[in-house]
Amino acid sequence: MKKAACTSGREEIIMSFLSTDKPKPQILDVRITAQTKVFQIQSVDLQFANGQHRTYERLTPSRRPAVMVMALEGDNLLMVREYAVGSERYELGCVKGLIDAGETPEQAALRELQEEIGLGARRLEPLRMFYVNPSHMFGPMYAFVARDLYPSVLKGDEPEPLEIVRVPLARLDELIDDDQFGDARTLAALMLLQRAIGTAK
């Protein structure tokens, strides 16, 4: 009984952080200011509850959510090295991609595994959903852990084969602490993975 009471108290504390009665700003106008094949930039006029007006810009891609998959092979995490045009260098990350129309997040995760590293998974465990940058774009991402892998290849759209990098689970802390490893999405996912499998220091 005492343990249950503690758990309930913790849930109440967490909810007090997340919940608010504060009214959301009123959206007065939304205008498209730029459009490319991939992105759309919108100007959004807001009126806050205190009467203040502000115009913010937001990046709106196709509003398709994405998936990230942490594929476990024994005591290793299978990561990929892929060129990132934003940082203009090869970045280490996890299997990821957009969810296609009509797909569930689980289906997209299994497809991306086969397209990017040529493996399927008999077990797929959801970790959680998180937003990449809620201030400026929609961008929800669903993180999964894939286990019991087997060879299965689907043709993807990568311009070059992705390099597979096997990272020992026991060394995830070293990777997270490395300043050269800076993809916030992957950092968040790795910390979730550590909590799920109990390898955090």
From TrEMBL:
<dbReference type="Pfam" id="PF00293">
    <property type="entry name" value="NUDIX"/>
</dbReference>
<dbReference type="GO" id="GO:0005829">
    <property type="term" value="C:cytosol"/>
</dbReference>
<dbReference type="InterPro" id="IPR015797">
    <property type="entry name" value="NUDIX_hydrolase-like_dom_sf"/>
</dbReference>
<dbReference type="GO" id="GO:0019144">
    <property type="term" value="F:ADP-sugar diphosphatase activity"/>
</dbReference>
<dbReference type="InterPro" id="IPR020084">
    <property type="entry name" value="NUDIX_hydrolase_CS"/>
</dbReference>
<protein>
    <submittedName>
        <fullName>Hydrolase, NUDIX family</fullName>
        <ecNumber>3.6.1.-</ecNumber>
    </submittedName>
</protein>
<dbReference type="GO" id="GO:0019693">
    <property type="term" value="P:ribose phosphate metabolic process"/>
</dbReference>
<keyword id="KW-0378">Hydrolase</keyword>
<dbReference type="InterPro" id="IPR000086">
    <property type="entry name" value="NUDIX_hydrolase_dom"/>
</dbReference>
<feature type="domain" description="Nudix hydrolase">
    <location>
        <begin position="62"/>
        <end position="191"/>
    </location>
</feature>
<dbReference type="GO" id="GO:0006753">
    <property type="term" value="P:nucleoside phosphate metabolic process"/>
</dbReference>
